[in-house]
Specification:
The chain is of the alpha/beta class. It is built from 14 helices and 14 strands. The protein has a seven-stranded mixed beta sheet. The longest helix is centred in the middle third of the chain and has 15 residues.
Amino acid sequence: MKQTTFPVRKKPTTIIELLSLMRFQKASDLHLSGGLPPTLRIGGAMRSGDCPPFTPNEVEHLLDQILSTRHKELLRERMSVDLGIEIAEVGRFRVAVYFQRGLMTAAFRILADGMPSFTALGLPESLSGLPRLRDGLVLITGATGSGKSTTLATIIDEINRTSERTIITIEDPIEYMHGNLNSIVFQRELHTDVPSFASAMRDALRSDPDVILVGEMRDLETIRTAITAAETGHLVLSTLHSRDATSSVNRIVGTFPAGEQGQIRQQLSSSLRAVVSQRLLPGHVGGGRVPAVEIMFINTGIANLIRQAKDEMIYSAIETGLREGMQTMEQSLIRLVHNGHITMETALQAARRPDLLKQRLCIAGNL
């Protein structure tokens, strides 16, 4: 492998050894596959262990230590399965097990100890108002590994600590465990407690919830039910695999048949409260990763743009909404460069509009 290596005293033979190694190396992710040594993502870069590669049988033996009978059934049926595990004195992890080239393969992601605050996550202060919302739809968007689940968990934790509400989460898998504090929290896991997000959403609406967290809006029926719930007095939190606020609106609207899209825009314009788009970037100092965040809060102007299908104007509306706590991804990147959190090269690679970003960095004196 071409990646930089990290030292391994001996090839791990148990999952506990592997996950302890992951924590010791301060890695965010671990990849296991036959023919490869343990491979870690450290500070955003991939590094392979300085030890012999695992055989396919060794990988299967390692994963057999964490897969339940039900997980194995799902793996046979779907060729992939997601789960959450907790190892005493090591931590909690999200695990994706799947096949590639006929070999069982897995990716582990370490989850934060405890429940981090918005400040600890490096998120803008303007997001601290999200837990105080009483109804509507809030979307946290971004690619896999951008920290969406952690942001959602932080919002749920803040609601749980500061208000008396009934919270139902629907997750695949359950990543962060929430105890009952001032609120009551019911956590349902896909394939263990419920067969699908859509059926879990229908069940949730009959269970007297104030807050519903849907791990991901994957299909039309789930999206339709989530929007309806947000319109009828519930606070609905969910994620989308979309790049920014504008593409999130397009993604939702585009899920519906053409004849329904006008009505969905009407519903979104009145029920959507915020879209938060995240990216995790390599930090300039001290390693680790830094969040770059686009924030769109729905005001009268943006609601009208959504309703009238003028999506191309949403970016400019966000850009001029600084006083309301909004910011585009480019504005976030400029601030991170100015504060020394990321390099200019990192910012340009992450920008949707690198020419515009470079021009504004020049004006700001960062180039």
